[in-house]
Amino acid sequence: MFDAPLHLLQLPPPGSTVVVAMSGGVDSSLVAVLLTEHGCRVIGATMRVYDGSIQFPEGTGSGCYGPGEEEDEESCRRLCSRLGADYRVIDLSDVYAREILGYFKAEYRSGRTPNPCLRCNPLLKFGLLPQALRDEGIAFDYYATGHYVRLFAPETEGTLPYLAPASDPKKDQSYFLYRVHSDVLATVRFPLGSMSKVEVRRLALERGLESAEKKDSQDFIAADDYGPVFADIPPPSGDIVDTTGRKLGSHHGIVRYTIGQRRGIGLSAGSDPLYVLGLDAPANRVIVGPESALFATILKAEDPVWAPGFGLAPFRAFVKIRLASKPAAALVTPIPDGSVEVIFDQPQRAIAPGQSAVFYVEAPEVGLVIAGGAVIMSGERNARTR
Q: Which of 289, 324, 352 is the last residue of a domain?
């Protein structure tokens, strides 16, 4: 599958101009410092996404979307001033509201389970943010972020890289980045990909960074639930039914449920707990049943993104159907109509339409790298006989 050995892409060479996408957290702050120490000219950049149109309760924490951006921007500005680096804030709030929040709400209302990070990364963080800087006449050689992920590429000049999991499996974020195309990744670097979080905080403390002990913010929104996001059109109540269509109870909006969910249903079938098996958006119904009905062997997916050399023929892979799932052995088959079929060696639990299946393959002397991924359409319980 790989024509040449792969090597880890290291830091940009000293003297390079590097844009660092900064959030105010410890990861991106340390990246800016390490690249400066390495002899690179750093330009800090933050994308502003919160427009104030959605109000969140006070004291509910922080997230990618929500109030608190000005405080984060000031933190980034102070660090860049200390480093002698330029700093820019790019307002992408209109695009974010339309393309990320709009997508998020539409997916949930249609009975699917969205993943906003998988849409935001290629479109905004690795797309419109660096492009906006170029449009302002800012020239740079590389783009860097604080993601925990690694890049490997063949030695041959001009060949495209492959995403690989971080050295620290607990912090690996490769799943979130599979939709960033290889030609974009060619000039991207991830300085933290071979570090643990413990090491990152230690290095930040040694350098006196104000973000060194700042709590990680990995939530989508600054709230404990998604209620504020759907306040524009309150979700209507409907029926909770079993697989035969028999009504068992009522729900307060399908946006509150996802495949595999157990808590919050408020029903039971004797001694056996009930799980969400499906969401029927046209009928506004939540379908529930036993946990055994959650397992499927075949997965259908659409809108694939492929790494170099993949996407034309079937291949064996380890497939993740959500961030927290373990990679499972499967046969991945690209279909001529642009869809993808995945047949697992063992049934998988709670395959959720709208989530993504990401395909990992073994690369010699490297380990796993991403061969591609696609958005899940459906899961089927039993494999067909071919």
A: 289
